[in-house]
Amino acid sequence: MKYCSLCGHPLRVAVPPGDNRPRHVCGHCGEVHYQNPKVVVGAIARWEDRVLLCRRAIEPRLGWWTLPAGFMENGESTMEAAMRETWEEAGALIEVEDLHALIDVPPIQQVHLFYRARLLRLDIAPGEESLETRLFRLDDIPWDELAFETVRLALRHEVDAPGGGILVTSLGSKGSSDQRQRRTSPTA
Amino acid sequence: MKYCSLCGHPLRVAVPPGDNRPRHVCGHCGEVHYQNPKVVVGAIARWEDRVLLCRRAIEPRLGWWTLPAGFMENGESTMEAAMRETWEEAGALIEVEDLHALIDVPPIQQVHLFYRARLLRLDIAPGEESLETRLFRLDDIPWDELAFETVRLALRHEVDAPGGGILVTSLGSKGSSDQRQRRTSPTA
Ligand SMILES: [Zn+2]
Ligand SMILES: [Zn+2]
């Protein structure tokens, strides 16, 4: 970030009044340009004992299996994001049920949310970002071919606590293992 | 957003190849500038039957009561954000326990997360953004003087389901009440 997106003038790095950390500040119009983590939302879409996975048609991790997931857009809720991503990547209609996992990934400034969902129809078809969509039995999940660690954790949690509880954890938080907190709230 | 933050040239609005919605694209360097929702994180910090509230020293809602909360920063986890905000706004040390609420606010491009927490020490003191910090009994929460609707919902959920369950809901999603989904996962 080098130029002000409002006025086009060069930015400098400074701690604004009342703030406690350096920000990108415009020397011309005074705007402070904050940078914040992004939210990635995905779905664990179930059909009986199977879960919907997509094989990625894009980098990174082209050819690897993933849950339908992607960046949340302005103007939508997290549940709507889960439905939209599942539609875009797998052509699949879902009913969102419960929050399944919240996984922080501080090194890449992301928060990953996964919702538990029910597949409404069996017809699925890969979208532009997928090579293939397939329903895997929980016993047959391709653990060694999963694209991302957050996907692995979300699926692991589904296998360990089918239909219940929320996984809350943080990945690679400043390399300190005692900052990695994992809590599961089992449902009644 | 009018100018490219990378090269300073004017932006235009166009649908990038492989995308399905208009973005701000740089006509000079080609960079696509995405805009995404921001995450606000707060804490319901308990001391026995009391909960920590702060009276706001800043606009909006100057003088109204709120839970310690604020924008998540790059490089931290959501739990760390809850601890930091509680420290900055109320001088309070907490131990984060469970995820308490996820409240989408699509009209303002925000996702609000609240963690249930335990106050570690009784000494609290208003930070720069607070006029006052106080521990309120759940029976004495100043419902008519709360700063924000998400704070009201989070506190309401604490009163309704003390110590258990996650509230997942969406506020004002495109004005349609049937898009407002509320789910509570009671803990065992
Ligand atoms: Zn400027
Ligand atoms: Zn540019």
Give a written overview of the molecule.
2 copies of one chain form a homodimer. In chain A, 13% of the residues lie in helices and 36% in strands. The termini of chain A are far apart. The radius of gyration of chain A is 19 Å and the shape is elongated. By secondary structure, the first copy, chain A, is mainly beta. The interface between A and B is large, with 58 and 58 residues. Bound molecules: zinc ion (2 copies). The site of one zinc ion has 8 residues of chain A, from loops.
Large-scale geometry of chain A: elongated
Kindly provide the radius of gyration of chain A, computed on alpha-carbon positions and rounded to a whole number of angstroms.
19 Å
Total count of strands of chain A: 12
Compounds present?
zinc ion
Most extensive chain contact?
A-B, 58 and 58 residues
Order of helices and strands of chain A: EEEEEEEHEEEHEE
* Mean pLDDT rating of chain A: 91
Q: Share of helix among residues of chain A?
A: 10-25%
Strand content of chain A: 35-45%
SS element count, helices of chain A: 2
Task: Give the end-to-end Cα distance of chain A, rounded to a whole number of Å.
Answer: 48 Å
Oligomerization state of this entry? homodimer
The major sheet of chain A is characterized as: 9 strands, mixed
**Structural class by secondary-structure content of chain A:** mainly beta
Residue stretches of chain A low in confidence (pLDDT < 50, at least 5 long) are: 174-188
Domain Nudix hydrolase (chains A, B): 36-159
Family (chains A, B): Belongs to the Nudix hydrolase family.
Biased composition (Polar residues) (chains A, B): 170-188
Protein name (chains A, B): NUDIX domain-containing protein
